[in-house]
Q: What sequence folds into this?
């Protein structure tokens, strides 16, 4: 579903992705972790072309990411993304936030878009919030809205970039629970997170990045139980 083949990226002189190779199969759940600044966000932003790589190949569902705008459009339609900051439109209701893209990008009739939005709001367990504004919701609820909003575009792949990092501790679980259910529904997911409980529970494989490189990739039991590199051992000792 996703293939990165020796991807390199620089920001000016800064080499932020170094020969990154990673393949993600359909329905696979991959968790990415690593120290701050190691290139995790840049890597997943390259997958939906929010950032451009300079060397190597990225292929998403058979579409290679090049400068061809048609390809970028096609990818954006297939890939949903959830960020650390929820990025909801504050002046629109929850329902309007959810129906905006289906109506304007997908040209879906309003009524149909609203039905779809309500289905996903129910899935993230906040249908009763539909007519409120983002500012009236808790952080955990807003992040669940952001997940529902991405799902309204019916993506084949969901990318998450530290979706719980900005949340108060008591709200982390309600967001992770939604992500666990999404994983169980068979969604292909790449999740940058330091929630190692989540990684153990749902990841098929865990990726460790450091200084722009993929250092280690392994199923969770092996990743946590038998880390091979010194850098991963050190990282795990700091976060667990
Ligand atoms: P992570 O998500 O693992 O914390 P990032 O992918 O955000 O790491 O950043 C990797 C490196 O690239 C860091 O050194 C960061 O400062 C740098 N970086 C990220 N975005 C930009 C940008 N838009 N311009 C310049 N440097 C950037
Ligand atoms: Mg990041």
A:
């Amino acid at each position: 579903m996703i293939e990165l083949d020796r991807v390199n990226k620089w920001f000016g002189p800064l080499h932020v992705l170094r020969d990154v190779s990673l393949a993600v199969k359909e329905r696979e759940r991959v968790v990415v972790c690593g120290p701050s600044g190691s290139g995790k966000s840049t890597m997943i932003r390259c997958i939906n072309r929010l950032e451009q790589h300079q060397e190597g190949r990225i292929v998403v569902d058979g579409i290679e990411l090049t400068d061809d705008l048609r390809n970028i459009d096609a990818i954006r339609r297939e890939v949903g993304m959830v960020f650390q900051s929820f990025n909801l439109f504050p002046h629109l209701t929850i329902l309007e936030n959810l129906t905006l893209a289906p109506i304007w990008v997908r040209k879906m009739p309003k009524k149909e878009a609203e039905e779809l939005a309500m289905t996903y709001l129910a899935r993230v367990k906040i249908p009763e919030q539909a007519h409120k504004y983002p500012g009236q919701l808790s952080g955990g609820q807003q992040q669940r809205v952001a997940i529902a909003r991405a799902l309204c575009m019916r993506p084949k792949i969901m990318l998450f970039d530290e979706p719980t990092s900005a949340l108060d501790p008591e709200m982390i679980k309600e967001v992770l629970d939604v992500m666990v259910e999404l994983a169980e529904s068979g969604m292909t997911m790449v999740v940058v997170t330091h929630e190692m409980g989540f990684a153990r529970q749902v990841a098929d494989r865990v990726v460790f990045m450091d200084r722009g490189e993929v250092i280690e990739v392994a199923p969770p039991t092996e990743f946590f139980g038998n880390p091979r590199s010194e850098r991963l051992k050190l990282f795990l000792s700091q976060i667990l």
